[in-house]
Prior knowledge:
Layout: H1 3-19, E1 29-32, E2 40-44, E3 51-57, H2 73-79, E4 82-87, H3 97-114, E5 120-130, H4 132-144, E6 151-155, H5 171-181, H6 185-190, E7 205-211, H7 218-233, E8 238-243, H8 248-253, H9 261-270
Helix pairs in contact: 3-4
Amino acid sequence: MVRFLTLLTMSCFALISTSAQSFALEPTLERKYSSEANAILDIYSALDPQSSIVAFVHGGGWSSGSRKWVQDKPQFFNDLGYTFVSIGYPYLPEAKVDEQIAAVEKAVAWLKINANSFGASSDEIVLTGHSSGAHLAVVAALKLGPSTVQKVIAIDAPMYDLRPLLSMKRRGVTNFFERIFGRDESELSTKSAHTFVSTHKDYAGYLFAYSNQNFDGWIVKNVERFVENLRISGASNVEIFEGWDYDHMALHRNLGNDDDAFSKVITRFLVPK
Length: 273
């Protein structure tokens, strides 16, 4: 079995063990952003009034997860001066992937309208996510446009262009993604970030991270092709963090640690000197 496939299918169990830990922060507020199942925001307010917002989309293979899987992220982003928001959304099979993308869009739209009600500002919204959540975050950010989402941090998403799945020879990996996305090219396109790159002239700032776990370099190539596509289309603020010292879960789990290299890159990306 391919290591990354195993990681995707087992990520929910790894995250359950870490989510059981005792973390320093509890949400300041919980808010419902739409009528769908699990459409709840956990809001961790920063001390600074009118702080900008970092909104996080958790992973779980599109079929599981919890908005509580945030580890040290709320404290980390609060310390940078951001209000941190963890987005809940519906899962497969009850909700299709395009409905999950739409849920993230609705959550960000709610934050844009209601930021002042919980002491934050919607002038800068940073959308981030891990694994499948990073896939949802990037597609949603591109569809919403840079007037709504100003920066994106994508943490080890398995793909940004789904079309190469049609020609993959890895049986286990192919079967897994077929169950999620199907094999119809038009359907794959509507769920791929690449489809929405040229829908507007301006672009958010992007930070992409990938780990050392991928099948035959396919994920790294997918990220690099997508970044090249963004740059060719006019995006000027695009960075890649090559996380060769990280596995898939470590990029998520270690974020916010004092000695974490990826956290330092995020700090420079969000608060440039």
